[in-house]
Design a protein that fits this description.
The complex is a heterodimer. Chain A is mainly alpha-helical. Helices cover 66% and strands 0% of the residues of chain A. The N and C termini of chain A lie far apart (41 Å). The mean pLDDT of chain A is 96. Chain B contains six helices and no strands. The mean pLDDT of chain B is 96. Classes of the chains: A mainly alpha, B mainly alpha. At the A-B interface, helix 2, helix 3, helix 4, helix 5 and helix 7 of A face helix 1, helix 2, helix 3, helix 4 and helix 5 of B.
């Protein structure tokens, strides 16, 4: 019984749960879009005084910051109580491809080559994380949404702009995976 | 107290993202290399149920918990901002293995180095706010 919880949750159950979260947010009068929080954080930090884009009533978005706090707690609960600390079971083909770039087979959820402290405190490792974050933050606002706002909420509402954004996610993701990552790793 | 429901939904979201392994850099690599169905299954299931649910909400004019109609606003028409913004997002998603939600779930999970990614995602959002007028939309 416990194994049912500690193993990787199935794609269909996880997908259904994510759709349910979106519907609960709609029912509570809000919408599912996580990256808006990044803009709200800039506004709450007082950056609206200098930049108009952050000059808005961010307090109306507190519900989403609370959702963000909840997701940190959720991550903590999953790690402490619902996991056995096993390695992520990715396909043999991916393991082999990553090996060629010098990234070892998984022993947990994340590769130590990127997220271990040795990596974070090296210049190259720090720049990888910094540029990754920078592009996600910049790109999600430029595109007006991230995976939750476009891929889930927008596509559920059959929005062509969201489909274009998701195509963009894949153009960027494939270019990074096949052309840029082999150069940096 | 009105906010507690959002806290609970966030907790469920964090657990699901962690337990489905959608927060794992390895899973994102596997997805972009088309070597497993897992991530496509998660997003595909969510979108399929989402399309059905949103259509039902519109058809039956379902109201929210406050009694207000649930409204859907069409996104602004454009190609360049979605394609360019989306592509930049995708570059970062594949490199860091995390979109904004999974970044914070990872921090809760114990991968504290993800705070570097989150911090720079906030910086990236700020830079967009500063340069947005100069970008094609």
């Amino acid at each position: 019984m416990r194994e049912l919880i500690t193993q990787t949750w199935s794609w269909w159950f996880s997908g259904a749960m994510i759709a349910s979260i979106m519907f609960f947010l709609l029912y509570f009068g809000q919408s599912f879009g996580f990256s808006s929080n990044l803009r709200t954080i800039c506004a709450a930090a007082g950056l609206g005084k200098r930049t108009k884009f952050f000059d808005f009533n961010w307090k109306a978005q507190i519900w989403n910051l609370v959702f963000l706090i909840g997701s940190i707690i959720g991550g903590f609960i999953a790690a402490q109580f619902l996991s056995d600390g096993g390695a992520v079971q990715i396909s043999a083909a991916t393991i082999s491809d990553l090996n060629k770039m010098g990234i070892a087979a998984p022993v947990s959820l994340q590769p130590a080559e990127l997220f271990g402290w040795d990596a974070v405190f090296s210049i190259k490792g720090f720049l990888i994380l910094a540029f990754g974050g920078l592009m996600v933050g910049f790109g999600s606002r430029y595109a007006g949404g991230c995976t939750s706002g476009h891929a889930i909420s927008g596509m559920s509402n059959l929005q062509l702009p969201s489909l274009i954004a998701v195509i963009g996610f894949f153009i960027g993701g494939l270019v990074m995976t096949y052309f840029i990552m082999p150069l940096i790793f | 107290m009105k906010l507690i429901k959002f806290l609970l939904l966030g907790i469920v979201f964090g657990i699901v993202m962690a337990k489905s392994e959608a927060i794992s850099w390895f899973r994102i690599q596997e997805m972009f290399r088309f070597q497993a169905f897992h991530m496509y299954g998660i997003i595909g299931t969510a979108v399929t149920l989402g399309v059905i649910g949103v259509a039902l909400i519109k058809k039956f004019k379902i109201r929210d918990f406050h009694g207000n109609p649930i409204l859907f606003f069409p996104k602004d028409k454009s190609i360049i901002r979605y394609l360019a913004g989306g592509s930049i997002f995708g570059l970062g998603w594949a490199l860091s293995g995390a979109c904004p939600g999974p970044m914070v779930v990872n921090i809760g999970y114990g991968f504290l180095s993800m705070t570097v990614v989150l911090f720079f995602a906030i910086v990236g959002t700020y830079l967009y706010g500063v340069f947005m007028k100069k970008l094609p939309h």
